[in-house]
Amino acid sequence: MSAEKHHDAEIDPVTGYETTGHDWNGIRELNTPFPRIVIWALALTFLYSVIAWVLLPAWPIGRDYTRGVLGLDQRQVAMQGFAALEKARDDWMAGFAAGDLDALAADPALMARAMPAARRLFADNCAACHGTRATGGPGFPDLTDADWLWGGSPAAIVETLRVGINSGHPDTRVSQMPAFGRDGLLPREVVQAVADYVLALPGGAAGQHHAGAQAFAENCVACHGETGSGGLGTGAPALAGGRWIYGGDRATVLATIHGGRQGVMPSWADRLSAAEINLLAVYVSRLGANGQRAEAP
Predict the structure, then answer these.
(1) 3-state DSSP: the chain helix, strand, coil percent, rounded to 5?
(2) Backbone angles phi, psi at 266, to 5 degrees
(3) Per-residue pLDDT for 279 more than 90?
(4) Of 4, 42, 49, 80, which sits 20 to 30 A from 114 (CA to CA)?
(5) H or E segment at 155?
(6) What domains are defined for the chain?
(7) What is the pLDDT of residue 289?
């Protein structure tokens, strides 16, 4: 019967192939042979997989895996790459371990080699909070302006990086703004008057006769300065320059005075070497030089 069926099979007049007898809306299926190139591709793929299983790490065995005949270890390869990178940087990085940072920053040739590495170091460790261009965001200071909470010299930045702010380091810098409203230190109407006074500082409209002037002098001057210019090395930001850490709209300023603020920066002493901290400090100190913004890494 099969031979007779084969003999009676319909032949496609265009291609010369037999049809399968299947018909889809006038389209007949051809009984064509499987492409040899696909067969060879499958065979080569299978052969490659067998060779790879033998030569390379491949099969998991509980908590371990087969190492393969070649004994390749990607972790070891990566560590060797890091070691080579560190060795290549040793000649210029050594100067940052205990050198004069001002003198190092004044060396154009050294800065040309060091700043690309510093930019990558910043991107890996600092950009998550301060942004890739170091311009900060809600709750995180802009590092490209002239307003510094603890000082903008390389030495001051080194100390801030080393001990952190409100961190777990025993020598951490400590700063906290009281919750004047929540804790009942000031009544609601006074909190609102101080907020309006603070908002008037950038435009110079906050005079001594302002409704919030007296409350500001009694409660805020010790940290933010008489004119709200900050820069006293107490962690209190400037209020008169129009740059805000948490936001400069009335609702945010009210929330800040009412509920207080306590920013946190980790200590990097156990995460980065002394040379890396010094390199970062020089980099950060140069971000706002001549009004230039940090370059994206």
Answers:
(1) 45, 10, 45
(2) -70, 160
(3) yes
(4) 80
(5) helix 154-163
(6) 36-65 (no CATH), 82-173+265-291 (1.10.760.10), 188-259 (1.10.760.10)
(7) 63
**Is 80 exceeded by the pLDDT of residue 198?**
yes
**How many angstroms separate the Cα of 241 from the Cα of each of 209, 228, 238, 248, 254?**
21, 9, 6, 11, 18
Tokens 């065979």 belong to residue: 43
260 contacts: CB under 8 Å, gap ≥ 6: 176, 177, 178, 179, 180, 182, 183
Q: Which pLDDT does position 23 carry in this prediction?
A: 80
**Which amino acid is present at 7?**
H
pTM for the whole thing?
0.71
Residue 127: per-residue pLDDT? 96
6 is known to lie in a ligand binding site: no
Report the alpha-carbon distance of residue 101 to residue 80 in Å, rounded: 30
| Complete DSSP assignment for 199-212 | HHTTTT---TTSTT
Residue 295 · residue 119 · CB < 8 Å: yes
Characterise 19 by phi-psi region: left (phi > 0), alpha (psi -120 to 50), beta (else).
beta
**Residues 128, 115: Cα–Cα separation, whole Å:** 19
Q: Which two tokens stand for residue 259?
A: 């509920």
Q: How many angstroms separate the CA atoms of 214 and 197, rounded?
A: 10
Q: Consult the annotation and say whether 224 binds a ligand.
A: yes
| 8 has pLDDT over 70 | no
130 is in an annotated binding site: yes
